[in-house]
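go over this record:
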Amino acid sequence: MDNVYYEDGDIIIGGILSNFLAEISKDDTFEQHPSPYLPNALLYPKSFQYLLAFLFTVQEINKDPTLLPNLTLGMHLSQDFLTVRTIYLKAINLNSGKKIVIPNYSCERRWLMSIIGGLRSDLSISIANLLGIYKIPQISYGSFDSALSDKSQFPFFYRTVPSELSQFIGVSHLLAHFGWKWVGLIAADDESGRNFLQIISQEMSKANSCIESITLLPVYSYLDPESVNRLATWFSKLSSNIMVVHGETDKLFLINVVVTEKQICGKVWITTTVWDFTSHYARKPWNLTTFNGALSFVVHKREIPGFQDFLSRVSPDQYQNDFYLDHFWSQVFKCSWPSYILDTSWHRCKGTEKLKNVSTDLFAMNTSSLSYSMFNAVYAIAHTLHEIYSLQSANNRNARMQHFDIQVWQLHSFLKTIRFNNSAGEEISFDENGDLRSGYDILNWAILPNNTPVTTYVGSIEPHVAMDYNIIINNKAIVWNSRYNQTPSSVCSESCHPGYRRKTVDGKLSCCFDCVRCTGGQISSQKDMDRCDKCPQDQYPNGQHNKCMPKVITFLSYKEPLGSILASTSCFLSLLTILILGIFIKHWDTPIVKANNRDLTFILLVSLLFCFICSLIFIGKPRKVTCLLQQVCFGIVFSVAVSSLLAKTITVILAFLARNPRNCMRKWIGKRLANSIVLLCSLIQVGICSVWLGTSPPFPDVDKTSKHGLIMLVCNEGSDFMFFIVLGYMGFLAITSFTVAFLARKLPDGFNETKFITFSMLIFCCVWLSFVPTYLSNKGKFMVAVEIFAILTSSSALLGFIFFPKCYIIVLRPERNKKVYLLSKSNSRLKRCQCES
């Protein structure tokens, strides 16, 4: 089969197309002149649309009276059979002319202005290496390898497709968009495949995604049982639901065979532009069922105006100039020509068959992406020639422009900056690397029950700024594999929900992890967080540990039950003390009031009244003044109360000793000693408090950490040491008073208070001894409530045991409140004491 097609014109554009796959024998060493005929070539029917797009575009340009007036484009087309071993011969053939192949010499008067091709990157690199010698512009319509963007190696190479680099980044963006973090990769074992794996690995690591496994397929995948079983075994070990495939169609057809024969289903396939899994050899159609729901990247395209009408009218009879359309026609319509018979059972080809009646899995009437690229490539040459001839016409208006007025190397300065709008309404231009300024469309493949593929546009990846791309996805338009009723998931470990953090497992990839609950004051507000964040001090974690909640500000308030109960109790006891004080004032001159120093009694009552009142200072929001007064007032008032009890006890002892006229203690009896004891003991406490206030006074403070979910407004003691010095001194007075009272409890007197003081101080000491550990074990308002309770309890004990017996006699037994009764009672006790002694 001759694989050359030629149409004459004023200007010749060459084309190296890839419509056939030929397996060249390993024994063919090209020691002899290679034959241009490869009869055992296998046809890619869908790829013939690229060739027809070339023919259509040249015809459209020749019909345009304004683009290249008075000039016609000719074409010289050849097949490369998708083999690098033949590509150099095809390039030399195009450069030499249509008849005799002589390197470095053209047998034609009309020079070749440009070559459009090849389809694969490795083929384009081979063509570029040869054409670079002659500085002939080359425009590829389907080579994506990023290496071709290097102008230092390929200065005369251009392409009407974007670089594959943007496509690889787009794949990683697609995976990140759907949260697919566990994928399998398949690539051809060539430079493009390895470049794909390197870039996709880097981009996936940025998104914390992982590659479960990689398989590299040999450049030439033979359908031997060992290769099929090896790939099938690899598939069976995969747990990921997402398969990303990169490679040329002819290199990866082994995949289709394996997934079909081994019934590997349930995978979501993501394919790059270079692999079209709907293309197949005419004699062996592929079963596409397993690819239902696949997503593929394709070069951005638009429908070419008039192209479908051209396809519907095309016929082999229109091209009699050694063209190989007969072979294509015979394959897709299952018919035979008199000179070309593939199957004797096929009917005779009429030439009137219509391509629109061919199954879409063999040939599609809609413009394909690469046909659109071919269309733009031919127009790019035409517009470049238009610019050149327009410039020459302006410089030499009288001269008739001929094709030999320009050399091929002159095209580059114009081709680099060419910018035009094609008939589809899209602006076409090249960037500084000779790549098309464009992005990629994302298609979703739905395979109908009759094995017919239907594609739907679902998104795109567009260049934004340097090395940055925007991805747009319409999730609702995607039809997934029938195994999934919603967007599929592919992860090694299920996502850690908010409130948990990821914990990596030794020996596994970062995508395989355990989920650990956030503890303490920490939260995680998003999925798959590597660590838990600590809440601010004024906030606390909620029950799910996924949100920080504002802490509740708390203090002992009058409005809450505890505060109101303590305040009411304090007020009640204060009123009760005032009542007792009133009773004592009313019965000022009675013997029971005069007994044991009347002045000390009133000092004690007043100090107890202030004890009850000072407890109110502890209730309410802590402020600077209240914090200063709380412990100071409490310490001083209680010291006055306890020292007055001590003075009362000492007075009783001295009074008993003074009964003996010879005893020297008589001179100590009197108010002066009692008042001195109260004054001295109180002044010591006042001095301690003064030192406290002068060095490290209490102040309002905020406790954000002691209680979960609470911000406690408290009074900071300033110096805990000074606070316990105050308590210690008060305890020293209480124990001293208790000891003295205990020793004097049986002394004779008309109304001996020492036994009541003993009981009251016993309770007082018990309350404050238990207060210390209870106080230290509580925080916030409960700590304050403990201190108020201790104040009220100890003060109530003093009030009850000392004054209730006297009030009982004053109010209910007034007959006992007489000097005669008290003296008789005192004499009887004295006699009892003498007998015991």
Observations:
- The chain has four domains: 4-22+35-163+303-429, 164-301+438-477, 500-548, 561-836.
- Residues 34-38, 399-404, 829-837 have pLDDT under 50 and may be disordered.
